[in-house]
Design a protein that fits this description.
heterodimer, A: about 350 residues, Ubiquitin-like (UB roll), Alpha-Beta Plaits, 3 domains, five-stranded mixed β-sheet, 16 strands, B: about 525 residues, Dimethylsulfoxide Reductase, domain 2, Rossmann fold, Barwin-like endoglucanases, six-stranded mixed β-barrel, five-stranded parallel β-sheet, 23 strands, about 30% helix
């Protein structure tokens, strides 16, 4: 690693490495610089310019997210000049879209909303002219409203650089620029695999989770971290809960390995089964050929009686058990302990081979 | 996995064989794709199907289904012949190299081409690419294991990795990608007929004594039957009762007509599950379980990482976590199990499972630990076999190629391979209840090559009948270049198209895994 050096940010002497950007050094040291298009782990594009800072002897304000630090650099992150520049950018973004927080799913969790508040903008000085795109409502998983898109490109980079699905890109020019799959296709008809990375990356309400629409506001949600129940990767997920119901699954980039906050379509959209009306809610016992509702006491009693008599008559090896690759370690341990220790047989296996 | 998921992204060469990673392990798929696109890794795909990873591959070897040992031996033939193998590693860390050398000698690129259809020149390029890398990772999944030569296939992967010094280094390894959330943990916990937790043999007296003392019972030293051996044992009358927790063998096991006969013959069948699935329909008693979001516990992922499962919502009705049900049943049967929490069970596991001894709930609160983790101050193990193998020296197994158990003939001219698709999962109990997943993949499809479809007069979406010696199913055609000519691919997610009525229950003699990747079928327009 190349040698570290000193730079100055807002009058503070700070140690920095040559491969770092101004933004990275600032964040590492708890100095706030607002961003919109910056997305950790993807290319720094310097597109939105809300992270502009003043660098001594630079020709103009520079984008902190894209500017590498250099020795003796002197940076100011907040001044009237900087605020004015940021305000202009944010007002233009506001005016070019349909940023109506009343019904927006991102209200309370929107980076544009936060920035408008931070900069204290009452009204944009430009006429509000949303592009008037139809909302994309082709599937039950991801909803797109490009009228709220600020063209930060985070979804494009999330799709190409994080998931490497290579589905999203920019098309069109100027005020008709938009993000989406090739040939302006909707997600459902395109090669999109519905990993939802774009929705997690979107800083505004342009790409959101359809099933969570009107299901709970961000500040009402409780998040419980757990492990995805599908494949063997063991992705760390957040179950978002509102009034005792799971309304969506989100990734969390702070959780690190194994999935670094990314998810696939099954982990993200595959958990409806939890509230399915077909869930078993009570024990069932076959009576006159039909499975009939029974109490736990009755069911456990019957199993005890049957297993005990079969064991007595035919020996422990006449009983077998299938444990499960879907259950927890604790449950698998107990199951084999039960089969070996209580029944007395090694006839215990599970579906690893299937 | 001998190594870790993270390492895949930063290795030099990835050899992916028998793994449709982007569909079955999408977040490992993303690592592979990032390695290729962003970090300059090279990718070799060995697979009969044109899977999603082929688009990112430098070399794609399209072998005939079931010819894996020949292809892997061919790679080793070239690597040894061209002196590209890791001589010092082979000398100091392995044994039986001469036996391997002798067997692979006859697997010349030309001979392998004859068996597998892989062009000799491509095989050479792949061999050089893998052998010349400083570090190279082999990834595999059920495409390697679900053959009656599954164990041979795995041994061949291990041979190749050892030959090039790729075991015991970061970014290397032989890495099975496990298909179910806790299949690693279920094995680690001894939910297998021959071993206690941490793979301690039931037949080993010391191990058995340890468990007898801890559990205060006397234990049998005779290994039990595997899932795949169970149906015959029932039909022969040796097994009378079956207790199934969280499985749906009526959908997942081979030759289900045979299995159904067995399940119906049982004196007593208990199913403990979150839904009344196809197997539960046959049960005498069904017990309702809490699902993953309704209980605490741990799963162990494919890279041996023990991670927390946390209760987020309440279970419906009177459904209970599986560990509570088993505790209550054991207690009723006269063996008290009084656990107040899953954590308490883990603390017992830790005393009997040396590789988990250091895994406490408080340590894995933020980030999971990878076993072996023998003590509470051990950081966990990122990759295995660092300075030596478990047995000391790595053992080469000289393996000969054996063709699949059932090959196409005049009556059954096609090969059927089964597996999963991105939008569905296993027997569909969970994924078929998800609105979005069903939208994307509402019904079973038979993937068939365009040339075959043309010859048989089958159009996209037309219903096809697929018949094997064991059964018949019908599903719509999806015409795609993914399967090679002469091979069709079907999933096993849909009970309406129960593809395991067709599959061949020919088992690997050691792994007892059925040959799901190759059986002979007849394909007709319905």
């Amino acid at each position: 690693m190349a040698e570290k050096f000193q730079i100055t940010i807002d009058g503070r002497e700070i140690e920095a490495s040559p491969e770092q950007t101004i933004l990275e050094v600032a964040r590492e040291n708890g100095i706030y610089i607002p961003t919109l298009c910056y997305y950790k782990g993807t290319t720094n594009v310097g597109a939105c310019r809300v992270c502009v800072v003043d660098v001594e002897n630079a020709r103009s304000l520079v984008a902190a997210c894209a500017m590498p630090v250099s020795p003796e650099m002197v940076v100011t992150t907040d001044s009237d000049r900087i605020r004015e520049a940021r305000k202009l950018v944010v007002e233009l973004l506001w005016a070019s879209g349909d940023h109506n927080c009343l019904t927006c799913e991102k209200n309370g969790n929107c980076e544009l909303q936060d920035l408008i508040y931070y900069l204290g903008i009452e009204q944009p000085r430009f006429t509000i002219e949303p592009p008037g795109y139809p909302k994309e409502d082709t599937n039950s998983m991801i909803q797109r409203d490009l009228n709220k898109c600020i063209l930060c490109g985070r979804c494009v980079r999330a799709c190409n650089e994080i998931q490497v699905n290579e589905v999203l890109d920019f098309s069109g020019r100027g005020s008709r620029s938009k993000v989406g799959p090739a040939f302006d296709m909707d997600y459902f008809s395109s090669d999109c695999v519905f990993c939802g990375e774009c929705a997690d990356a979107c800083p505004v309400g342009a790409i959101t989770f359809k099933q969570a629409r009107f299901a709970g506001r961000p500040w009402e949600l409780e998040k419980v971290r757990t492990t995805c129940p599908y494949c063997g990767v063991g992705c760390q997920i957040d179950l978002n809960i509102h009034k005792g119901k799971i309304i969506k699954v989100t990734g969390n980039r702070n959780y690190g390995n194994p999935n670094l906050g990314s998810l696939c379509v099954k982990g993200r959209f595959g958990i409806d089964f939890i509230d399915d009306p077909d869930r078993l809610t009570t024990p069932l016992i076959r009576k006159n050929g039909k499975l009939t509702e029974a109490s736990w006491e009755e069911a456990i009693g019957l199993i005890t009686e049957k297993l005990t008599s079969i064991k007595g008559e035919h020996g422990p090896d006449s009983i077998a058990g299938f444990s499960s690759a879907r259950c927890t370690n604790e449950e698998n341990y107990l199951f084999q302990k039960f089969m070996r220790g209580v029944i007395g047989t090694n006839n215990v296996d599970h579906c690893a081979r299937l | 996995m001998t190594n870790s998921i993270e390492e895949i992204e930063f290795t030099d060469v990835i050899l992916a064989t028998g793994t449709n990673t982007t569909e079955n392990h999408p977040m490992i798929g993303a690592r592979v794709k990032r390695a290729v696109r962003q970090h300059g890794a090279k990718l070799i795909v060995i697979d009969p199907r044109e899977i999603g990873l082929v688009k990112y591959a430098n070399i794609w070897l399209r072998q005939k289904p079931g010819t894996d040992v020949a292809v892997l031996n061919g790679l080793m033939n070239i690597i040894i012949g061209e002196n590209l193998y890791a001589k010092e590693y082979v000398d100091t860390r392995t044994e039986q190299f001469d036996a391997l050398k002798e067997v692979v000698a006859k697997y010349t690129p030309e001979y392998v081409e004859e068996i597998s259809g892989v062009p000799a020149e491509d095989l050479k390029r792949a061999a050089r690419m893998y052998a010349e890398a400083d570090k190279a990772a082999i990834l595999y999944a059920m495409g390697i294991t679900q053959h009656w030569t599954g164990t041979d296939n795995v041994k061949s992967c291990a041979n190749l990795a050892m030959l090039c010094g790729n075991i015991g280094i970061a970014g290397g390894g032989v890495n099975p990608l496990r298909g179910q959330n806790n299949v690693q943990g279920a094995c680690d916990m001894g939910a297998l007929p021959n071993v206690f937790p941490a793979y301690q043999q039931v037949a080993n007296d010391d191990a058995r004594t340890r468990f007898e003392k801890a559990w205060n019972v006397s234990l049998s030293g005779t290994p039990g039957l595997t899932v795949t051996e169970m149906p015959d044992a029932v039909l022969e009358g040796t097994i009378k009762a079956l207790y199934i927790m969280g499985e749906n063998p009526m959908m997942s096991d081979p030759d289900t007509t045979h299995l159904e006969k067995a399940l119906k013959k049982l004196d007593f069948l208990v199913c403990q599950d979150i839904f009344l699935n196809e197997t539960g329909e046959l049960a005498d008693v069904v017990l309702p379980s809490a699902c993953f979001a309704e209980k605490d516990g741990t799963y162990t992922n494919t890279e041996r990482r023990v991670q927390r499962v946390r209760k987020a919502v309440d279970a419906p009705g009177s459904a209970k976590p599986d560990w509570q049900i088993i505790s209550e049943l054991a207690t009723k049967m006269g063996y008290p199990m009084n656990y107040d929490s899953a954590e308490e069970i883990m603390n017992e596991i830790r005393t009997l499972t040396p590789s988990y001894a250091g895994v406490t709930y408080s340590r894995i609160e933020e980030e999971g630990l990878q076993w072996p983790c023998p003590t509470e101050d051990h950081p966990g193990t990122q990759y295995l076999h660092k300075d030596q193998f478990t047995r000391g020296r790595g053992l080469f197994h000289a393996v000969e190629y054996i063709p699949p158990a059932e090959l196409p003939d005049e009556e059954y001219p096609f090969i059927l391979s089964t597996g999963r698709v991105l939008y569905q999962y296993h027997t569909g109990t969970m994924s078929r209840r998800a609105k979005g997943l069903v939208e994307r993949f509402p019904e079973s499809l038979v993937e068939i090559n365009p040339d075959d479809a043309r010859k048989l007069g089958i159009n996209e979406g037309a219903t096809i009948e697929v018949t094997s010696r064991r059964g018949k199913v019908a599903a719509k055609a999806k015409i795609t270049k993914s399967p090679p000519q002469g091979t069709i691919f079907m999933n096993f997610h849909f009970s309406e198209v129960a593809v395991n009525k067709l599959t061949n229950p020919a088992l690997d003699p050691i792994g007892k895994i059925p040959e799901y990747k190759v059986c002979a079928v007849k394909v007709e327009a319905a």
